[in-house]
Amino acid sequence: MAIKQLTETIINQIAAGEVIERPASVVKELVENAIDAGATRIEIVTAGGGKNLIRVTDNGSGIPSNELSLAVSRHCTSKLTDDVHDIRALGFRGEALPSIGSVSRLSVKSRKAEADSGFEISVHGGRMDGPRPTPMNGGTIAEVRDLFFATPARLKFMKTDRAEASAISDVVKRVAIAFPHIRFSIAGSDRTPLDLAATGEGSAGMLERISQVLGKEFPENAIAIDAMRDGVRLTGFAGIPAFNRANSLHQFAYVNGRPVRDKQIWGAIRGAYADVISRDRHPVVVLFLNLDPALVDVNVHPAKADVRFRDPGLVRGLIVGAIREALGQSGIRAATSGAEAMLNSFRLGGREPSPPGVTGQHWQGARAVNQNYHVQRSPYRPLEPESGFKNSENGFAETVQTFLYDRAEALAADARAGTIEVAPDLLSNPLGAARAQIHANYIVSQTKDSLVIVDQHAAHERLVYEALKNALHSRPLPAQMLLIPEIVDLPEEDVERLVAHAETLARFGLGIESFGPGAVAVRETPSMLGEIDTPQLIRDLADEIAEHDTSNGLKAILDHVAATMACHGSVRSGRRLKPDEMNALLRQMEETPGSGTCNHGRPTYIELKLSDIERLFGRR
């Protein structure tokens, strides 16, 4: 078959397959262009999930009429100097507009502030028309209709209009977080309008914008991050462990203001929360990395969502260390969402699904309430006549009243017998003073303005685990010498990586050395691991070092053993504690980082503010 030159239209359509994956990709490229143009107001209108219409209007600097034809031509950009490593704008490849125009009906209207009128250029399936004069205000309007009409096969891979509209909202929200001084609005026949008002510069404006996107609960459950290492600065907010989600969609990362979805960053976030959150739960974080553009490559993929760092180990260590330090210094905190969930479960107004077999009744909280129930007619009324109660109207009421008063007095006496008298100064502590233990597992504590319920087993499990970790990592771990060294065959490059980390591995009890060009000799293994599959451990460590340039895998294994030991060595459920023991447990929790969750990520305590309790009883 003869070799031939591809046409410009085919080249653009091939390029579009990399840049324009779905309608959300179009919105991302157009919004980034508007931001680079200095816009302070960006409006997005969609229809049919973006497949029928996408219109992005901004009040940026605009495009001169004599440059409009270049703007929709490949490899033409105003955002890149002669140094491809010095990229300071969101866009730089010069592929977005021509790629969009090759697979849709694109029109771009723009006007410079000093120009007498605006100009419009159209690109239909790669064919250019214009520019021509058009009336408009300053800024740019990019309109995309009939996306993928020129490549109908791509339409078969699109999701429903609702799903595509949701993806567009997610893209806009991710971009909006990095630019709180810009107002973003999304509207259209396929969606509920979304308006993100400008919140201004600075940390306060950033936190307010984040709350617009993630909800008002996030600022109440987040810790500020600000760390610097070797020219790389990390800022942002990390959610406390107890405030988590079922997926990672609430994790936002930015590199020099660019939203990215980088697996190295996600891996670092998982590592930072490894000890304090369950494996099937995900923390809520917003992180901003700022560094010299020469130290990061953003030209990895045409979609510009992936990046490569010159020193990935430095970035990972900075993220893990900064988050862990922030969590440790924040003191003990419970997620506000836990109290809200408890309140919702108590509220009689809240409707939950009826349990199996319950029909014709309103299921309220944990009990069924029959709307036709009457105490006099019920065959199961609680106060039977033969128990000494009178059936006359007045007599029945008097007997019930007397019974309830007597019963309440008896219950109050029981309650007084089970409570603990405490010193008033203990109420000032974050977890207050222990007042009672119920069901031999839950400690009820009181502060000046709240009620705290502590799971004693989960709390003590965390305390024992942290003590074990500190003992393990504060000094080199004991190692057991092998009578016959284990020889593990590996590729040469893996041997070099392992030997480079030999000193770190030795601190954890694993002694290795090179055994020729393609093997390592294992002479010592950590004593606390007992008998292990040494070759598999070495191969796993080599894979981890190759991917992340760290040897944390062995540390993670040892931490897992410590967690197992802590689980079996902590205070068991069902053990009755003395008042001094309960208060000692509360004080230890206040002093131990990460004690808000157990080793498995479950909360160790729930706090109900007095205002929440009063609201529960309708006093507010």
UniProtKB/TrEMBL annotation:
The keyword Nuclease applies. One of its GO terms (biological process) is mismatch repair. One of its GO terms (cellular component) is mismatch repair complex. It comes from the Bacteria. PROSITE patterns: DNA_MISMATCH_REPAIR_1. Coiled coil: none annotated. Pfam families: DNA_mis_repair (PF01119), HATPase_c_3 (PF13589), MutL_C (PF08676). InterPro entries: DNA_mismatch_repair_CS, DNA_mismatch_repair_MutL, DNA_mismatch_S5_2-like, HATPase_C_sf, MutL/Mlh/PMS, MutL/Mlh/Pms-like, MutL_C, MutL_C_dimsub. The keyword Zinc does not apply. Residues 210-328 form the DNA mismatch repair protein S5 domain. GO terms for molecular function: ATP binding; ATP hydrolysis activity; ATP-dependent DNA damage sensor activity; endonuclease activity; mismatched DNA binding. This protein is involved in the repair of mismatches in DNA. It is required for dam-dependent methyl-directed DNA mismatch repair. May act as a 'molecular matchmaker', a protein that promotes the formation of a stable complex between two or more DNA-binding proteins in an ATP-dependent manner without itself being part of a final effector complex. NCBIfam families: mutl, PRK00095.2-4. Belongs to the DNA mismatch repair MutL/HexB family. This is DNA mismatch repair protein MutL. It comes from Phyllobacterium sophorae. The gene is mutL.
